[in-house]
Design a protein that fits this description.
It is a single chain. The protein is mostly helical and 123 residues long. The protein has one domain (22-117). The chain has four helices and two strands. The protein has helices spanning 2-22, 40-61, 66-87, 95-117; strands at 29-31, 34-36. Strands 1-2 form a two-stranded antiparallel sheet. Helix 2 packs antiparallel against helix 3. The longest helix is centred in the C-terminal third of the chain and has 23 residues, at 95-117. The radius of gyration is 22 Å and the shape is elongated. The protein starts with a helix and ends in a 6-residue tail after the last helix.
């Protein structure tokens, strides 16, 4: 009798894991209250493509200055966050992993903006 209840509990746990995993793979995505008839990974892929096109346009059409460099850095950070959250499944993991990723990213971002503020002709 214990084998039957253990098997039933294992099946229930497996079904719950399957249900929570299949929720990520639905054919509809809700973004800012708008329903999009595409899976979430397709929407993220489209957003990454649009951000890449934005970066290419900014890099090729506008002169290099502090504003364009800042826009490119911000677009790159948004792309990195989308990849980490959705394709690396960090949004479902322990928040401690996110902290381990955000702290070095913040330090690197501060260092990058500090280096951008240093005059080129300097010393």
């Amino acid at each position: 009798m214990t084998d039957m209840s253990t098997t039933t509990q294992a099946e229930e746990l497996a079904q719950e894991a399957h249900d929570s995993h299949s929720a990520d793979h639905s054919d509809k995505t809700v973004l800012f209250g708008t329903t999009i008839n595409a899976p979430v990974y397709t929407v993220v892929f489209g957003a990454l493509g649009a951000l890449t096109l934005f970066e290419l346009l900014i890099a090729e059409l506008f002169p290099r200055n502090f504003l364009t460099t800042g826009l490119l850095v911000i677009a790159s950070i948004i792309k990195a966050v989308l990849v980490v959250l959705f394709y690396m499944h960090l949004k479902d993991d322990n928040p401690l992993y996110a902290l381990a990723l955000v702290v070095p990213l913040g330090i690197g971002l501060i260092a990058a903006f500090f280096l951008l503020a240093v005059p080129v002709t300097g010393y």
